What does this fold into?
Amino acid sequence: MHIPDGFLDPRTLAGTAVMGAGAVGYATSRLNRELDEGRISVLAAMSAFVFAAQMVNFPIAGGTSGHLLGGTLLAILFGPWAACLSLTAVLIIQALVFGDGGITALGANVLNMAVLGTLAGYLTYRLLARRTAGFRPVPAFLASWVSVVLAAVAAALELALAGAIPLRVALPAMASWHALIGLGEGIITTAVLAYLARVRPGLLGAVPPQPAKLPA
It folds into this structure.
């Protein structure tokens, strides 16, 4: 799903960078209100897990690839803004150290995976599980699937807007492959959350049920 260097034109690069930076800046301002110090070490451990999971890539088409995302998993555990910052850190390390995703396309990759994918998964989970407390496996599975597909669709639209790949090629390729990858994302996310609900039930109750909208 990472967009490499050279696939986006300057206009798309600039636009996605501005939107991604704006969202990350807002997430930073919200972090202290969502995450207490006692859970930072847990967030770091889960971020390391997501980092390792994202390193397993599946080639798709046109130089792009697919992989697990992890945004919904982190958002359910720690809230959407902490998850956004965690995934942003993962993407920066991947781009700078491992060359996974272009440095010039970092803003687009952050926007797609850390912002849009994470928020879509979080909102979907809250929409489906808002009347219940604790962990709900079916909403978690569906939210994870939605987050992966939506992030992939965003990447396809950016590639098409930049003129790198025709939309009729990019959108079906990205959406169809990530619809399958999203099933794996849903299974892994649900399994990890079910395990944590059993061994660390307090983690699942940290983000209380609320209406399906972003916290103000």
